[in-house]
Specification:
alpha/beta, Transcription Regulator spoIIAA, five-stranded mixed beta sheet, 4 helices
Length: 121
């Protein structure tokens, strides 16, 4: 995980388990408190699932926090399906909060989307 101003670049390897999700989301909250916004750039090319307890935690976290946008790249079809379901649930539980998430083929496309999104804010 690396930080570039208000952007966190997360490279996921294996399953995204709760013990990894908690510090990641604490870091996102810290950046949002510092800068007023936070984008997540997620490389899911080596990710292998999101367990139920992690999905539940992320949903609960989003009841109190809203990232500015999530750009995902490198996700397999199965990973895209799981991530899409998780973010749909986040949108439902985060009443009044709209989280934007898009999937891209590669990092360059994802970064362009974040730059364009950031410029509109």
């Amino acid at each position: 995980m690396t930080r570039e101003a208000d952007l966190v670049h997360l490279k996921l390897r294996g399953p995204f388990v709760l013990e990894h999700a908690r510090p990641v989301h604490e870091y996102l909250a810290q950046i949002m408190a510092e800068t007023g916004r936070c984008y997540l750039l997620a490389d899911m090319s080596e990710m292998d699932g999101i367990p139920t307890d992690t999905r539940r935690y992320v949903g609960e976290w989003h009841k109190q926090h809203t990232v500015s946008g999530v750009a995902v790249y490198g996700a397999s079809f199965a990973t895209r399906a799981i991530a899409t379901l998780m973010f749909q649930a986040v949108r439902i539980v985060g009443v009044g909060r709209q989280i934007e998430m898009e999937f891209f083929r590669d990092e360059a496309e994802a970064r362009r989307w974040i730059a364009a999104h950031s410029a509109r804010q």
